[in-house]
Write a structure and sequence with these properties.
about 300 residues, alpha/beta, Rossmann fold, Histone, subunit A, 2 domains, six-stranded parallel sheet, 6 strands, about 10% strand
Length: about 300
């Protein structure tokens, strides 16, 4: 592939879309065709201990193409979008020294935004404000955080991963410190210049089909041992990476708050809600060219046009 385009032209193909839409399958096929490597932009697959519940590529899939930022850190590490921005830019800089095309794939909009646009300029928050929110969270639980965000910043409430306490506390701390919504700061993006061209591809399917795929994938996760995986991680349930869909519902089951059937149905429901928020976010951010995930011929043609093969 490096023989087909000038060495001065570097391209990062960004594949986005909601959970369960088929991003990984497309990325692997494209990477094989383009002799490229894959850079994950998934804030859950980045953790070593979380495998089945994050729908990581299988061992066989990972062996087909080099992947980066899968199993990158531990749930015991502190890792943020800022860390990801730094790590990804550093790694891509090295990668493009000898490669013409890379593929960034994932559904974590904040990771993609951090890499492509830089993080937003938020006010410095007094640690006392954060500590105050942490205390309320421990006393009143995740639902309290969710309700506070819904009241104080309803726009962000419809975008954020409602199971990510860290992001909820971050948003509330900015609101309390600035007397402005968290969303208002998201509207002022930093413009960064990247040393490679960006090709943005969004994947989309009819909502009914997406929800059907999500439901089937959850059933597959259960069959492949998600309950057992969650059981092993249960002792770490208060670690922030585990405050996410697929694990929190099963932790409720282990705590005898709901039945196993109810937990599985909640995973499906919360996954569908998460997908809906992802769709909303990506339609507002970026300059995506949308395709159906199985429309490989037209996707490949679009890429070859953009890279002037």
């Amino acid at each position: 592939m490096s023989n087909l385009i000038s060495s001065s032209n570097k391209f990062l193909i960004v594949i986005s879309g909601p959970t369960g839409v088929g991003k990984s399958d497309l990325a692997i096929r494209l990477a094989q065709e383009l002799n490229a490597e894959i850079f994950s932009a998934d804030s859950r697959q980045i953790y070593k201990e979380m495998t089945i519940g994050t729908a990581k590529p299988t061992f066989e899939e990972l062996s087909l193409v080099p992947h980066h930022f899968i199993n990158h850190v531990s749930i015991f590490d502190t890792y943020s979008a800022g860390h990801y921005e730094w790590d990804a830019k550093k790694l891509l800089h090295r990668y493009f020294q000898s490669n013409a095309i890379g593929i960034l794939v994932g559904g974590t909009g904040l990771y993609i935004k951090a890499l492509l646009n830089g993080l937003d300029n938020f006010p410095k928050v007094d640690q006392k404000v954060i500590d105050h929110l942490e205390i309320h969270y421990k006393e009143s639980g995740l639902e309290w955080l969710q309700n506070q965000v819904r009241i104080l910043d309803p726009d962000y409430y419809h975008k954020v991963d409602l199971f990510n306490s860290r992001r909820l506390i971050r948003a509330l701390s900015v609101v309390l410190e600035s007397n402005s919504t968290y969303t208002s700061f998201l509207e002022h993006e930093n413009k960064v210049t990247l040393p490679y061209h960006i090709i943005e591809i969004g994947l989309d399917v009819p909502r009914e089909l997406l929800y059907e795929r999500i439901n089937k994938r959850v059933d597959s996760m259960i069959s492949n041992g998600l309950v057992e995986e969650a059981s092993l991680l249960y002792q770490f349930k208060n670690y922030r990476p585990l405050e996410t869909v697929g694990y929190q519902e099963l932790f409720q089951y282990f705590d005898h708050e709901i039945s196993k059937y109810e937990a599985i149905e909640l995973i499906k429901q919360n996954s569908r809600r998460y997908a809906k928020r992802q769709i909303t976010w990506f339609k507002k951010h970026g300059n995506w060219k949308y395709f159906k995930p199985d429309d490989f011929e037209n996707i490949f043609h679009f890429i070859t046009q953009k890279t002037a093969f």
